[in-house]
Write a structure and sequence with these properties.
InterPro entries: ComA-like_MBL (IPR035681), ComEC_N (IPR004477), Competence_DNA_uptake (IPR052159), Metallo-B-lactamas (IPR001279), RibonucZ/Hydroxyglut_hydro (IPR036866). The chain is 49% helix and 16% strand. The chain is built from 25 helices and 25 strands. The chain has an eight-stranded mixed sheet with strand order 16-15-14-13-12-11-24-25, covered by helices on one side.
Amino acid sequence: MSLDLRLSVPVAVAWLVAVLLIGVPQWAVASAVVLWLSAGVTTAAALVSRRQLLASFGLACALAALCSTAVALHADLRQPEALSDLAARHVQVEVWGTTTSAVRADLEYFQAQLSSVIVDGQSVPLSSPALVFHDSDRFGVKGTNGSEMEPEGDEWGIGVEFSVVATLTATEPGDGRAVLVFASEDAQWRADPAESIEWANQLRRTFATAAQVLPGGGGQLIGGLAIGDTSAVNEELDAAMKTSSLSHLTAVSGANCAIVVGLIMALGGRLGAHRVLRIALSVLVLLAFVVVVTPDPSVLRAALMATLVLIALGSGRPIRGMAVLSLAAISLLVFDPWLSRNFAFALSVFATAGLLLFAEPLAQLLDRWLPRWLSLVVAVPLAAQLACQPVLLLLQPTLPTYGVLANVLAAPAAPVATVVGLAACVALTVFPPLGIGLIWIAWLPSAWVAAVATFFANAPGTRIPWWEGWVGVVALSIITVLLLAALVMKQPWRRRALSVLVVVTALAGAAAAGLGVSAALSWPKDWQFAQCDVGQGDAVVVRSGERTALIDTGPDPERLDVCLTRLGVDRIDLLVLTHFDHDHVGGAEAVLGRADTVLVGPTASAQDVALLDAFEAAGAQVLPASTGDRGSLGELRWSVLWPGERLAGIDPGNDASVILEFLPRPDCERQCLSSVFLGDLGESAQARLVGEHKLSRVDVVKVSHHGSADQYPPLYAALNATVGLVGVGAENGYGHPTADALGMLAEAGILAMRSDTDGLVLVSPATRPGAVRLWSERHVGGQG
């Protein structure tokens, strides 16, 4: 492919317009009119003057106008005013839709395309992508005619028509999902998937069943490497793949599509098939492949690029890589402008652009020191890493130390696992014995990839800290551009670029070090509350004198251990497990053997009991919490406000969360801050809590359920807290914290401190009564 950047800049402009307009869709119509007029005037001027710059500007306006028009056409049906009104009222409705991801009992949410919402007998038509949260151990199975219909296996596939009684939460206009659906009952199966989709569901199920017997990380990864199915990958291996920069191997993209098309074209050529027939067959197989692996953004981009390349081959036209990428990107953005803020789509486009622009120049540079084949092996992951890293910083503000090396080692194995895995997937439905043999062969390279990921994830210094947010993105982008210029430009420009790179890197390093010193100097020594950044979950440390308590452990032992180490907490006098959801107890491994007393809510499974047995075996005293339980922690006294006898009619889980209150003891010699921890208590349980207790005014409240919309505002008004701690992960998919929850806190005069945007948060007493001092690793605060 040759480079042609004439289309790339107009597409980038249109992409930026889409990013802006999906956040304010009410401007889309006016913007489309202005842009269409600008495109017409500019194009006419370009035809008269024959100036290339005017032509490019006109094309940019036209493409941006197409995106604006798409936003205007889709916005009202995607998120109509009636839907926002239902979400604001928190009423129960009946939702109808079609699944767009697999639905399994062990997953607490699935993706769907909603077709309508029924309330008070009235149907509101929709075309809304949604995330449906369900908390059931089984699926509803009632058919449209009242007969019993059992979904095959333990899951529903893609394309199942369903209905569910639920409450709704509207997302921000620019969110990829228009609405969050919180099911109150089991989802009901209404219709089977179309035959054009069900065959793919069956293929995925057959492959997943066969892969279950494969051991270790290879067995977990084989589905992702072959068909993009990562459902078998556990959290530990998933984290290792991300840490070592190998997670892209399980996201089906251009390499997989190239392999599929290449096999068809090569096999057809060997059989003597005409080129047109081979191209047509390749397109059909590519379409079937997309259905099997599910049409995620990266898959759609790769498949559309492959189709455009095939069309160019069939017409005898030259293949221009950047032009093909640009055309595929703008086509998808016009089809769905909300992809403009989708990280998977952006990373897919950036990685491909990096390969097209930088891989060959880098390989030529490396040819000076390495053999040609090794130069290409190193240049490909390096080019993709350089192109994607600025975007990746928005997800995780660190740089991978071993990313390129891990990719170099895994690169030879990944295509083998993909090709043989795909062959096994097909053979399992045609001749199962052959499929079983092939899947075991594919397991070998898959196990190698897993071993590489695990090795580098556990190596010392796997990630290098970097600046948060757009400051870090801009700084790294400048350094990346200078580095590429220094590598590929000729003298004397190379020397100049290298000199500027050294100066900018030195300044960036000095500034980063300065920020670290500033944070160290401003770290409050008298902090009493610390909200750890453990991702989507809760973990708050309470300190009084020499005593410490930990309220929940978050989902990740490693992140919790890092936080406790930073805080200098080695021993925990009181560990409270409010309830046994993974985002509250998943990190418990980090504090086994470090806790003296463990206060727990009601158990719901043998796994919960086993965790408590592990704490007892490690020497902790495990106590079930009950309303009225009391104790002391340094100069604080704590008491349990919930659940106890109030569990009647409440199942173990969110509404059975242990609610703990910390108040200063009368003999507190210093200013002691008070607090309440609300676990994941829902609105109705919160209302009962207010009705049954005369609540004290507190300084700090741990906001319930990560800032979900399921809140009871009078509770927060009664607590009259100064600070609200919100344990929430960046890009968590739940929409937490919701705009409603944040608005409620603001109305109650409570300052929200979020772990996703503030990182580690420390709360200390201030000099004046009723005030607190706040410190966070990302925003150093003052009194509140």
